[in-house]
Amino acid sequence: KWRIVVSYDGTRFSGWQYQPDFPTVQGLIEDALTKLTRYTREELLMAAASRTDAGVHALGQVAHFHSPACIGDLSRIHRGLNGTLPHEIRVREISPAKSSFHAQACARTKRYQYKLFVAPVMDPLLRLYAYHVPERLDVAAMAEACGYFVGKHDFSTFSNSSTLRPLQNPVREILRFDLLEQASGPVLCFEIEGTGFFHKQIRNMVGLIVAIGKGEHEARVIPELLAMKDRQKLARVSITAPSRGLTLVSVHYDQSDLDLPENLLCRK
């Protein structure tokens, strides 16, 4: 089993997870690995810590894959992957992993950033990486709103789960939800770290916080909406923030999960 750390610009991809008819980050990495190793997608059994949506970016996505035999020269595979993949995707690290390691199941916390560009005219260099908000925002009210999300909550209201795939456990813990202002320009950055996030959860939270910043609601609406446990109630008061502002920054594991396997031997 092998662990990889991947960065990507998600603009032109249909998210991380493999889809046979659309370009995805997983699909392109598997295609590259198949060319380099001659193993099939079914043999590789790749899985990632986060199945990022279409248009979402990553600095430190973590994934793992299998190989029927040990790969002796990881540096060759590493160079080959980055030489084969499109320029928007880069494998930053590749290393052996314990048989018990699972990129998603072993993850302890995940850290995301969401960027807003708050000015009447959008910076064209940031158009693919930030949500343009032309209106003035009440930053103090937004910072207060962020605090209501910290802690353990039932996030049913902020999850885009379907009736066909309802949430088995809607409780997650957010350890940090900070709003940072950049002194050099009109960029606001949310820093969010938690034990896990549901489909579009962060974008739904940001969408509501932006509505609060515009004066459409007060920050205390958040505990009220959390208590309702109803996604439709949220849809009536705010939109889902666009994917382009969201970046998966890093995934954190216990060191014991990252330690190299003992007695690693490569079969010739």
TrEMBL record:
Substrate binds at residue 112. GO terms for biological process: tRNA pseudouridine synthesis. Signal peptide: none annotated. The lineage of its organism: Eukaryota, Viridiplantae, Streptophyta, Embryophyta, Tracheophyta. InterPro entries: PsdUridine_synth_cat_dom_sf, PsdUridine_synth_TruA, PsdUridine_synth_TruA_a/b_dom, PsdUridine_synth_TruA_C, TruA/RsuA/RluB/E/F_N. Keywords: Isomerase, tRNA processing. It comes from the Eukaryota. It is an enzyme of class 5 (isomerase). Its EC number is 5.4.99.12. It holds the Pfam family PseudoU_synth_1. It comes from Selaginella moellendorffii (Spikemoss). This is tRNA pseudouridine synthase. Residues 5-103, 145-254 form the Pseudouridine synthase I TruA alpha/beta domain. The keyword tRNA processing applies. It catalyses: uridine(38/39/40) in tRNA = pseudouridine(38/39/40) in tRNA.
